[in-house]
Amino acid sequence: MPEAPRQDSRTGSRSAPTDEELRTLDAHWRAANYLAAGQIYLLANPLLTEPLRPEHIKPRLLGHWGTSPGLNLVHTHLNRVIKARGLDALCVWGPGHGGPSVLANSWLEGSYSEKYPDASRDAPGMELLMRQFSFPGGVPSHVAPEVPGSIHEGGELGYSLAHAYGAALDNPGLLVACVIGDGEAETGPLAGSWHANKFLDPVHDGAVLPILHLNGYKIANPTVLSRIPEEELDALLRGYGHEPIHVTGDDPATVHRAMAEAMDTALDRIAAAQRAAREDGVAERPSWPVIVLRTPKGWTGPAEVDGEPVEGTWRAHQVPLSGVRDNPDHLRQLESWLRSYRPEELFDAEGRPVADVLACVPEGTRRLGATPHANGGLLLHDLPIPSLDDFAVPVDKPGTTLHEPTRVLGDLLARVMRDTADRRDFRLVGPDETASNRLQAVYDASGKAWQAGTLPVDEHLDRHGRVMEILSEHLCQGWLEGYLLTGRHGLFSCYEAFVHIVDSMVNQHIKWLRTSRRLPWRAPIASLNYLLTSHVWRQDHNGFSHQDPGFVDHVLNKSPEVVRVYLPPDANTLLSVADHALRSRDYVNVIVAGKQPCFDWLSMDEARVHCARGAGIWEWAGTEDGAEPDVVLACAGDVPTQETLAAAHLLRRHLPELSVRVVNVVDLARLLPQGEHPHGMSDFEYDGLFTTDKPVIFAYHGYPWLIHRLAYRRTGHQNLHVRGYKEAGTTTTPFDMVVRNDLDRYRLVMDVIDRVPGLAVRATAVRQRMADARTRHHAWIREHGTDLPEVAEWSWNA
């Protein structure tokens, strides 16, 4: 094992601030507060060089003031310790709508102007900064991709702490601060994320410093953690494995001193824990610090508006003074509020921050807005993926041998895990399902990360492991997103039915990637790769609750330049698809593949070509012989492919004169028109593959209407008949699952007979035979509990 990096001695030295330093910290904080408030209100007159007039105010007041002063306080004090201790740091800003604060601070430190030269650090740049906030053609109110130093948007709450831990994994020299809003702290994903410290390796990982910001209110209600007794909150946090450090108050001078002491105490404890693990070999899990920051909501803003209390109440959440353009009293109150920060002391005549304001700001890439860890593509290295030929299964004839596709992939992932042992930039995450999903070969290269207690019966637990398993899909997703956004690689393996738990999380990540692609300074990151297995057609043992193939529908609704969906039909095509996905950048790749024994259809060379095409004719399976097909049998997914080929086999035997074309689709987006998705087919390609006037019987892995939606504009759509999952499931036999959903081989043959002109009359006896086989199936499984021998023992060459 490579030697772990040593903790820089500077991170272990307490440096209590002097009165002069506290004065400059306050100046920085006031400047950030001024800029944050100005972004919500001002179109012009950014330095208040003349009395405020209605025309200086935005026509629509959008933004959130309530959390801003607390975020500014954290940013100011992080600046201090980063500079004093020589830290590399990243901050995840959890509270929703925290954009004004992080924008203000990145502008003050200069990182914003470096990315957006028009927003220069002077009066014109300040005016642009204020004008563009929540304004048409400007920037959002969240800490979005446009904000330097950000990896977390905070639009949907609950994921900040998971992202922070993901960023810290395999980043031993990094401090990741995470501000958690007390509204966010009520969400289920955030509650689950407190357990992430049981997986943080103090030797090879960085440190996470949670800062629980309790300002008392959500939009219109008090927050739970702000209202429970402090002893109860402390017991909760200690139970989670943290040692709380409290900072409470509303007097700025007192809070600055307390916050500085809290930061020093927390960082000293972190440094001591890392030294103990890295230098002394201490294996016990540390009790990591957490700062509990209690300051008023809307601190330093209007105390009262129209006779109602505002500061310290829910009324400060968004825009404390809403009638500024029309109400002269509100306008005067706004001007008084803004002037209370004494901007003439904070900015010179040209609008540049004065030396006192910048005294605490670190230099270069140590600035929070300039850290490369928040622009992970800058740090990304290509993944060492070995030759697929080393793992390919031999296929002399299609459909005669069987392999478990994910087990074959597991061997490849184990090699990748082994080849990244020194660089530690690849992780496999999943909710307690790595072995269940047949990927357990990775344990030969890395155990499962675990810092809690162990028992003799435990297997593969490893304090330094890079396989992450916890029964929280939210936490798995958050870990991986944080890991990818800071410049590393990974794969999320999950049961197909339960990946829906992160539907909204993947929404946010897709939006982040789409926006990032439009920012030239954001370097591409490794793709978010899902392996969905234990899928709908082989959840016959777990039953209806485990049967849902709809995640692909959800993903394909999203930005087409970002999303990709693959349904490899066998082991070699899975290897080829995985190779492509692991090499790709800035995508969300969804791969759906079975873990049960599956027929091998294509050799490795054939699989590469087929996957590159995304959809193609399997000539060996059809009976065209150069003639125009009478019918097209199409399929996407491993079980639908097997049933389609079994149906083609039956048609060869019973209707040998019929010209049958078999088309397999690996890349689902190929069905879309060329103008709707980068992988879409032209009409010319689509018509050549599926014909314009012949029946197409399409056996699909998921909900059948998705195929109709993807192909509805095609010339031959009226000839398209799709079979797929239609919510008919239970605990039953594997073949009974396809029969219940009319996806079985016998039903597909019946569909051909029903839809090819002229067959309904001359193939009546064949159709009746197929219907009788389905009847025999129902009787057989109820008597024997297993599938018909003719199904269970079928192979292509039988």
From TrEMBL:
Q: Which domain of life is it from?
A: Bacteria
User: What Pfam families does this protein map onto?
Assistant: XFP, XFP_C, XFP_N
How far does the signal peptide extend, from start to end residue?
none
Return the broad EC class. Answer: lyase
What keywords tag this UniProt record? Lyase, Thiamine pyrophosphate
Domain Xylulose 5-phosphate/Fructose 6-phosphate phosphoketolase C-terminal span(s) in chain numbering: 595-796
What's the EC number here?
4.1.2.-
UniProt lists compositionally biased (Basic and acidic residues) regions at 1-11
- Obligatory cofactor(s): thiamine diphosphate
Region Disordered, residue ranges: 1-20
Give every Xylulose 5-phosphate/Fructose 6-phosphate phosphoketolase N-terminal domain span. Answer: 18-378
User: Its family?
Assistant: Belongs to the XFP family.
- Protein name (database record): Probable phosphoketolase
